[in-house]
Amino acid sequence: MRVLEGASLTGANAPAALADALGRATVLFLFLFALAQPLSIAGGEIAFSAAALCWLARLVFLGRGILRGSPLDGFILAFWSLCGLSAALAPLPASSWEGMRKIALIFLVLVVAHNIPNPHITRRLLAVLFLGGLVSVAYAGWQLAAGVGLGVVTSDPDGPAYQAGIRPGAVIVSVNGRRLRKPEELLTLLQSTSAGAALRLRVVPNVLGSELILDKDAVSIILPARVTSLQSNFETLGMTLATARPPRARGFYSHFITYSDEMQALLTLAFGLWLGFRRDSRWHAWGFAVLVLVFGLALGATLSRSAWLAGMLGCLVQVGFHVRRSWVKFLLPLLLVFGAFATNAAVHRWRGVGLIDPRDPSTQYRLLMWKDGLRLIRTHPWFGVGLNTIRDAWPQFDLAAYREQGVRSHFHSTPIQFAVEMGIPVLLAWLALMAAYWMMLAKLVRQTREKPDAMFYGLSLGLLGATTGLLANSLVQYNMGDSLVVLLFWFLMGIALATRNHIAGG
């Protein structure tokens, strides 16, 4: 892209005041995006869309703004174009064009990169992003401490609860529209309920042994009026209850894997900033150290072994770039091996599986999906089977994991998913983009090492670590198919390009 400074694209006489207002609105929506991203996919997408519309209106209709080229422009265009070609040739075009909405989120990179006018805005955006992350950690901690409902420990087959369909292992999330977290709260509600009034329950069934307790899975159950008496015990209902807590932290997200990617990215980003500020600002360093600790605890509570190792790898890569002593660099691979053994022991302790455990159903599912994925890549090498085609026409593909485990999901690997759905050319374009981006970040770290502003160096390290972790985890997770993770990834890439521009501009 060539540089356009104040160049007229459609009209040179557009009011400067309106252009300035749109510029400020774009930045405002980027701040709203940074706050919402750790909390809500809808909030993040709405803020991104509003920022993009304001920027495009300022650029195209008013002819105000600056476009700067970057070493990633060609790679981004090639990846997006090849994805579009695959969608156009897909057997289910409607499904594939729906999937292109997620691919189009890549343009967040350009919105961010071209609308951060100075490093001060970068600092504040990062502060707001960390604030949103801390709010999500606080909520996740509150869920673990206070619970998310009432777990059914036992249910008498002759009791009204069992006869209404409530089985041991279910979770009652609300009664008469009221959220309950302690058994005593249900007793209080029973005592205050008029005799002859029915109880309306929202129940998540079959939670026993599951790693997710989601309100969206709840079903409505009505207990008849004869149940509500003034007895102050649970004999009326024929069941015993206990506070139900989420087995794995997930914050505001619907899945702990998404949350683990978010936390490991924020952890490694804060770790890089801690390394950068250690030499210049004691107070800043302490602040980032606290962030590392908080996000590290949240990441640990997800019990996600791949995210643990990805976060560790991201931090060790940063240390490898930061330290000058060769003997320390030599120890880093050994630390990663030690971390793998520690992770294996931890997941054995808390999840009853190993790091790589053939008895683990999720590992079995991955292996089956990868095997079928390679088969589909061989039979559809150029344009894939089409985005979302397997999701919407899965019986046509005879996937062993679907048959044996009865679960319809994705391929649990970003490279395999891209190659299966969109073909080998798209996979190669993706790998080229990621390689170019990673090398740009490595160069940025070297360029900023001796800069007087520690922010540039710490941020470059943090971006390198976060990117390394997310890419490493993408090998065994389809995290680039998760809009929440993708939005964070492209946002950080935009921050990286804006930082590169700021450094080049002096």
Q: Compute the average pLDDT.
A: 90
Rg is: 26 Å
Profile the largest sheet: 6 strands, antiparallel
Quote the beta fraction. Answer: 5-15%
Shape: globular
Low-confidence stretches: 1-11
Question: What structural class is derived from the secondary structure elements?
Answer: alpha+beta
Assembly state: single chain
Helix content: 55-70%
Number of helical elements: 19
Order of helices and strands: EHHEHHHHEHEEHEEEHHHHHHHHHHH
Give the total of beta strands: 8
Q: How many discrete structural domains? A: 3
Distance between the termini: 21 Å
Q: How would you sum up this structure, described in words?
A:
With 506 residues, this protein is an alpha+beta fold. The protein folds into 3 domains: 4-67; 73-144 and 251-504, no CATH class; 148-244, Pdz3 Domain, CATH 2.30.42. It is 61% helix and 7% strand. It has 19 helices and 8 strands. The strands form 2 sheets. Strands 3, 4, 5, 6, 7 and 8 form a 6-stranded antiparallel sheet that branches. Helix 16 (414-422) crosses helix 17 (424-448) and helix 17 (424-448) runs antiparallel to helix 18. The longest helix is centred in the N-terminal third of the chain and has 28 residues, at 119-146. The chain starts with a strand and ends with a helix. Mean pLDDT is 90; it is low at 1-11.
